[in-house]
Amino acid sequence: MTSPQSIKTLKINDIHVSGVEGQTILNVAREHDIEIPTLCNLEGLSPSGSCRLCMVEIKGSPRLLPACVTPIEEGMEISTDSARLLKYRRMIIELLFAERNHICAVCVTNGHCDLQNMAQRLGVDHIRFTYRYPNLPVDASHAQFAVDHNRCILCGRCVRVCDEIEGAHTRDMCCRGIETLIITDLGKPWGTSDTCTSCGKCVNVCPTGALAEKGKSVAEMAKRRAFLPYLVMRREVRK
User: Torsions phi, psi of 104, nearest 5?
Assistant: First the structure.
């Protein structure tokens, strides 16, 4: 049973809400139908705070804090939709588009892409930054799937689902800054991996067309993610 001491009361966008000690701002906001945008967070996976779209303002703090990894505290006053936050979120989306080669018109997830949907939601209709146009590889060596690094936003979902849910830890990140890439088995082609189980979980949690099933044409790749909360729930039941 939850003790009275573990209940925290706070305000989000001037709405009085409550949560349990240890919950994050994002958890509590979602429980009260308060929407906070995010690309790296996904129910069933551990939070990473990597995309920074869920940054919020907290009264008394000069810094913006990521809602997905910031625990609630008694008396917090939080803003999730200020003009300052909208400005930063739009900038993040623009930078994601400028960093890699996102050509929506020829993408297998066109119309089913989290990045595309987020851009529309935030009103990003042009990019102010110079495109980098990096020369990144496409690995189609796997029999069923392919990875296009040009469309990767480095959210880490595929790394976490492979480690936390499948238990294979086939994927990881290498290098730093703009050189960062998702790799398979310390840099092997995906099709030669000794650890990949070909489960497809990484493909279905990917928010863009970076990971896709072979044989899909433009706009045909819709991701299936309902398995994640179900698997987590079944594991909790078996404990």
Answer: -60, -35
Q: Are 45 and 161 in contact, with CB atoms under 8 Å apart?
A: yes
Burial of 87 (0-12, 13-18, 19+ CB in 10 A): exposed
Distances, alpha carbon 81 to alpha carbons 37, 54, 217, in Å: 10, 10, 37
Do 77 and 91 belong together in one domain? no
CA 132 to CA 140: how far, in whole Å?
23
- Averaged over successive runs of 10 residues, the pLDDT of the chain (239 residues) comes to 78 97 97 97 94 98 97 98 97 98 96 97 96 96 98 97 96 95 96 97 97 96 88 72
Residues making up the chain, counted from first to last:
239
Domain hosting 157: range is: 87-238
- Take residue 25 and report the two structure tokens written for it: 């701002």
